[in-house]
Amino acid sequence: MEHAQITTETIIPAIVRGIKSVGVGKRGSKPIDATLAREIISDMKTGNISAPAKGAFFGALFIKGVTNNEAVLDDIFPPGTLHDAGKLAEQIAFDAPDFVKDICASLLKGQTLNLESAHRLGKFLFSNDPGDCARGMIASVLRVRYETPDEYDGLLRAMQETIEKPFCQKVPAGDPVIQLAEPFDGVDNSYLLTPLIADHLQSLGFRVISMVGRNSGPKWGNTLLDLIKEMKIRTVSGNADLKEPKPDFGWYINQENLSIAVDRWVEIRRQTVKRPFLSTLEKFLNPANANIVITSAFHPPYAEKMIMVSERAAFGGALVMRNGREGSLAFPLNRPVKILCSAMQCEGEYTRHEIEIKPQEILGKEILVDEKLTQPSLSENARLIRAFKEKGSSGNENFDLRVKISCIGFQKAVEWIRNNIIDGL
Fold first, then answer.
1. pTM of this structure
2. 173, 265, 298, 304 - which has most CB atoms within 10 Å?
3. Per-residue pLDDT tens for 244-266?
């Protein structure tokens, strides 16, 4: 018996394909054809499109500009809606507060928000009030046209206000705190080694916490949360846990315990498809008053954005690794890594410095081709980490070399922070 060929187009919902075309960004968004537009109309009429996805699609479509093939989508709204920001905001944000409708219209017109407006918007976004269609539109529009520093700042302040009470308690006295925060959608072509980085940094006189959370996509690799579950490492229940002796591999804060309001966005983000502002900001929630935050940015412009966010969030020091292994804090073996460093000075000012880590200089040999795994095993990843911790070697040369260069690289950057931060650490 012949089987019908199953194509990607028949598997992926029409609205998702639409978002992937119109919601890419300033230089990547593309129009959809009339066939896909009609599929979206059909799904809209049968109620097969979620509120966040609807908002994300039409927000991105509007700011991209509606083509002739896409004009048919206007038939599901009052005439002229897709060419009028106010009308579209009324249709999409119909169940949201009036001020949110006004903000939606402003964003569709290309306007930016000041700090106060962004903070007020953030309080709505992380509330349980109706308006998920508006939430999808706002996340999509901000992402496509890029968020401003004031918008990032205001939204992060609103996120910080959602932190649960056990993580608002005073942090017990002890060594200064380093916060590790790698992408929550993980890595699909290499092993994670964050627990070993944490272990090494703790040996330098720090307490190390790692932020983990559920994968919201759009990538579906192994995450640090997946790994610590495999390793049977518990997450902390509140800041009071930091009074305990340093555990092997440091402490882990799960986003679903840290902020129910932020964790709720995982489901919204899965429906809006593209990474929103949360992909950047969730790394900088700071429940334990960390002195230093360490994170990564695969694409160069985001290193600058992350340093800016860390400074406005008042971290004493920040390290952003660029050009590492995508989705992790692991260093590559065959290309240089740059670490952008920032250290607080007097009166809230910051000084910056860039450190370049060259693998050949640290490893003593040149590695021309780095390994690229396919669907790396979590159980093997856990075994490698346990073996390295116990013996100083995992038996996997590439893994061991990566641990070596990653630990040395971050140690150099942390030492720069120690020597340049006001009052030291």
1. 0.94
2. 265
3. 999 999 999 999 999 999 999 99
